[in-house]
């Protein structure tokens, strides 16, 4: 990767050849005015190339637009003074992200020992001396191979059994679920052991991600994802539970998620030349509400006190009975849930991290519409759901949006001019702000003293970007001329309030849960961040706003879509399936609102970063500077 | 019941008030000329009433037609000399039938302990302190009640679980299959223990019989039956297997039997005010071919050497998956088969007799299209299928027919005039001859010396009833003027040949099977006759023609539809289900045609009663008279 050295700051970063110089600057922690998100239209981001090869269109007045400039070798770039107004910009710490958990642990290794196996047998063909029934012939040989004395049989196997046996002269591959007793799921003519696949799926409230897994070697052949089509019927789980109460509501939600799963399965199979009948296992993890919709289970009592799921552990279910494509033998498994708002995605996530098998006290955080937290180690696991709300996913934020093209994903504010530097996903004209942009923006506004600890704008700053709008004070992030939506993109005090409540809910959640098990935050040895957030999150910024606890940065890890990883492990390993059961059993769920101290913790957390600054020593130090 | 005394023979029999005097005469072993089958048209059966009350129309020339005369008190009836030509008619032994097996054993008692049970539980309703999932709440209580630690769950139970639990404040009845591990099949609100039913069904090649069973007390609430609608596609199993090879043939045969089962279930439920959802169990027994059709299994290899069934033991199958009416929880079980032509009807039958639990060496005989025989006791069981063909059900007999209205069911031939006395089912003009009529006729022709031991007509008898027809020598049983079909009903030498071959196949079957296990016929301590035949069969006649072995008459029993009885026992008792498995395992199947001595035995049996008369000592004695 080319190295880019910025002058006059003399900071060097490495970036891939397909990233722009403005992104390199953002990465280096340097400010360049940029208000079009990298779309190349505002022209404010002029830089001069002082050495090395670049690709980009020179400006007539000299220099290049940093947002359309690519390095083609190591380069030296000067940021002109009109942009880099003040050395204070350099005070901003370079973006620090959590280490990749799986890489730190050399990946989530599981021994390849799937619960659903293919067994190849060459049977003795029948004769007048030995004319036992087809099934008995197969059963006898299978039981011998398995070292078992009882076999359950999926009766639908019987329909083509005689033909499958005779097709290759009684050489046959059985698909068997290794349980007690083992279950014969299906039968294939000849030796088909080399063709055996599974789909691992994370069914999220917003996104459904699927991986096609080769069960013969554990490889991930491909991955795909799509929005959960239930979104049309409600953005969050609560509104979908409401929709489910309407006539056919539940049926629609059920069918939508099944259709989407079917679509993803077909897409992956087609791309990787796998027959749908070669899929033996849909290994799925999802939150409790998604699990209910998937199985067509009444979700109503999940949201009515005392918040009771229909079930939290689920049997293997024939995929056909759910209308999913596959063979007659194909089974679906769902990661076990813990409570109404701590679901199988969390169980799978905890299994993916391995934290329940190790000694260090670990805090597992999944920041999503509903923040879930787990704390524990090999000896205990405690979990809770925080009603954080969707603010960190852009929900309830005036110009908040999901992380799609045109979303502002990174922001820096010049501390002197208060001009922003913004980057959008896809380098398009900005449409709104997504989660990581929101955190950047909030942290910048706070750390530059534009808003105070309670999230209110300083009324004495003279900048056209800070103004009283119709809904109170606000910061203009993008003028309408430069936005893709024909209006100013602003960030309001009401938005900030929402964010403070959301981060307050998370932080007081950590505190309450830890206190419930007799511990406190300083005892946490590792923090693992799950969800899409983890890899993009600027740790410093997240700590500055009090969303994450102020712990040594090297103890933070991101694990990515741990729900999907857990689902994959469950497809690959009987042991992981069992571990999922064990973890679900082991997890003690705490209802935060039932804790007597929770409300106090919550109220104390409604400050940036917190009422008690001693909880955030590095932020305290920074503020004192 | 009124007593009827016949003069001049001075023989008294009891008959119900709705039976005619001519039937009383047949029962008493007395001959009255009668050629219209009891339809009241030939007018040959004149009798005189000498005492007691009768109902019937007097003939103008005096006396009454015996076939339309009913006793209204004890009566004395004189048979005029022109009918009772010769005292030799009295030589005919009075009809002797086998004792009813179940009555002899005080019924097939099983302890009432069905495999599918209803369990009533009052659960603690959920609260914030105890908000475990609905399923876990139920599961915990159920496992405690069952004394088990693992429960399998029919996932479809989950769909209405929350409502069923809440309908009666968490008082709920579970339907559970008691296996290892137990399986939760269904759930009902409140206490429904008192409403629990099963259907026991014998799926025969010709007839399907069903009983509605109250599982709370073991009572048979009702019984019904219908022709197996597959008959339209082939009278016997072989022709149906052929039909199954046509496009959609198997599907049609499968659907027809399912439709018929559904119809019988609905009919019984309607009549006895039982909801179809209250049926927990279809307990079915049928021969191997019927079992294959019922489950939509390929029957083709049953009839191709080496005669391999797809399966002989069948798992419990959800009734809904077969398209049968019932609840989501309703299961179907099928009695295990032994071989391609010894099916679950025989296994069920053996269980019904209890012969596999007792010491006496027992010969179990089911004479149907395919004769099946089982010999054994508590220590061993051996079985075989005899390809006897359908002659004893009227198949392959020129005027043979099934036992329906108009079928000649009893015959007596006057030894002097050779005039017949016939009775038809329903007292209608005769259409043909059914099984019991065929045996009567054959035995009469033989014992009166009208045919010889090889089944050929004596050529020297002067009677218009014995003649050379287009197909050789024949006996005219009904002249066309008196038949319902407008033609003479005759019994030909070809018919007799078929019958001799059929009874020869049965008898050589007994011999071969017994020899296969180192025994011979004289060692048999009991003979149990299964099927419809048993109760109507005239033992003496069946022995005279060599269909049954010549053993002491008191050792013969008929058990009726033992397949149905076995199916009922399997519904009522877990133990009987297990016994069925044990019996099927225990039964050693012998392929008769593979036995080196079989052909010799068969050829020797192609005589009336047998080439070796010493095997039939009482017949030998009778013939010497």
Give the largest interface: A-B, 43 and 43 residues
- Helix percentage range of chain A: 25-40%
CATH class of one domain in chain A: Alpha Beta
Shape of chain A: globular
Structural class by SSE content of chain A: alpha/beta
State the CATH architecture of one domain in chain A: Roll
Low-confidence stretches of chain A are: 83-93
In order across it, which strands form the biggest sheet of chain A? 8-29-28-19-20-21-30
- Oligomer state of the chains in this structure: homodimer
CATH topology grouping of one domain in chain A: Ubiquitin-like (UB roll)
Span between N and C termini of chain A? 35 Å
Biggest sheet architecture of chain A: 7 strands, mixed
Residue share in β-strands of chain A: 15-25%
Q: Specify the number of helices of chain A.
A: 16
List descriptors.
30 strands, 16 helices, Ubiquitin-like (UB roll), six-stranded mixed beta sheet, homodimer, alpha/beta, 625 residues, 23% strand, seven-stranded mixed beta sheet
């Amino acid at each position: 990767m080319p190295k880019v050295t910025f002058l006059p700051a003399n900071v060097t970063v490495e970036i891939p050849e397909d990233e722009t110089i403005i992104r390199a600057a953002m990465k280096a922690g340097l400010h360049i005015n940029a208000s079009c998100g990298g779309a190349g239209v505002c022209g404010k981001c002029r830089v001069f190339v002082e050495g090395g090869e670049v690709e980009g269109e020179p400006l007539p007045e000299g220099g290049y637009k940093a947002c359309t400039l690519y390095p083609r070798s190591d380069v030296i770039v000067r940021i002109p003074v009109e942009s880099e107004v003040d050395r204070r910009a350099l005070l901003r710490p370079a973006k620090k992200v959590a280490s990749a958990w799986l890489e730190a642990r050399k990946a989530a290794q599981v021994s390849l020992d799937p619960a659903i196996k293919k067994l190849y047998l060459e049977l003795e063909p029948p004769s007048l001396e030995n004319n036992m029934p087809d099934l008995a012939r197969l059963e006898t040989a299978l039981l011998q191979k398995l070292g078992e004395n009882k076999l359950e049989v999926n009766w639908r196997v019987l329909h083509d059994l005689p033909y499958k046996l005779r097709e290759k002269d009684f050489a046959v591959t059985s698909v068997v679920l290794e349980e007690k007793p083992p279950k014969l799921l299906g039968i294939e003519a000849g030796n088909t052991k080399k063709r055996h696949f599974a789909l691992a799926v994370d069914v999220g409230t917003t996104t459904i991600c699927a991986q096609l897994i080769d069960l013969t070697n554990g490889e991930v052949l491909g991955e795909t994802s799509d929005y959960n089509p239930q979104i049309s019927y409600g953005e969050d789980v609560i509104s979908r539970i409401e929709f489910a109460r309407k006539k056919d509501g539940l049926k629609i939600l059920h069918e939508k998620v099944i259709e989407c799963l079917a679509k993803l399965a077909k897409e992956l199979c087609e791309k990787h030349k796998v027959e749908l009948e070669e899929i033996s296992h849909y290994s799925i993890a999802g939150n409790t509400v998604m699990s209910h919709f998937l199985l067509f289970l009444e979700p109503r009592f999940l949201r009515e006190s005392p918040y009771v799921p229909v079930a939290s552990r689920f049997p293997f279910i024939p995929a056909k009975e759910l209308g999913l494509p596959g063979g007659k033998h194909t089974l679906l498994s769902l990661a076990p849930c813990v409570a109404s708002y701590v679901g199988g995605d969390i169980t799978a996530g905890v299994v993916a991290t391995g934290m329940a098998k190790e000694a260090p006290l670990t805090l597992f955080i999944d920041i999503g519409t509903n923040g879930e937290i787990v704390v524990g180690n090999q000896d205990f696991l405690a979990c809770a759901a925080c009603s954080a709300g969707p603010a960190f996913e852009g929900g309830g934020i005036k110009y908040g949006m999901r992380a799609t093209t045109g979303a502002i994903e990174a922001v820096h504010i010049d501390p002197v001019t208060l001009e922003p530097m913004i980057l959008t996903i896809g380098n398009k004209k900005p449409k709104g702000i997504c989660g990581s942009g929101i955190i950047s923006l909030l942290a910048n506004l706070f750390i530059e003293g534009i808003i105070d600890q309670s999230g209110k704008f300083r009324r004495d700053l003279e900048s056209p970007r800070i103004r009283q709008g119709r809904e109170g004070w606000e910061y203009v992030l993008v003028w309408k001329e430069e936005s893709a939506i024909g209006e100013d993109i602003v960030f309001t005090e009401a938005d900030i309030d929402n964010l403070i409540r959301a981060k307050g809910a998370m932080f007081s959640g950590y505190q309450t849960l830890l206190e419930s098990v007799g511990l406190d935050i300083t005892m946490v040895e590792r923090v693992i961040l799950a969800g899409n957030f983890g890899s993009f999150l600027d740790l410093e910024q997240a700590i500055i706003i009090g969303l994450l606890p102020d712990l040594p940065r090297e103890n933070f890890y991101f694990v990515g879509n741990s729900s999907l990883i857990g689902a994959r492990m469950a497809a690959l390993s009987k042991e992981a399936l069992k571990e999922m059961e064990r973890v679900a059993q082991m997890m003690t769920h705490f209802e935060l609102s039932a804790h007597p101290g929770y409300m106090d913790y919550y109220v104390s957390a409604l400050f940036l970063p917190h009422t008690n600054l001693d909880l955030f020593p590095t932020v305290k130090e920074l503020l004192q500077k």
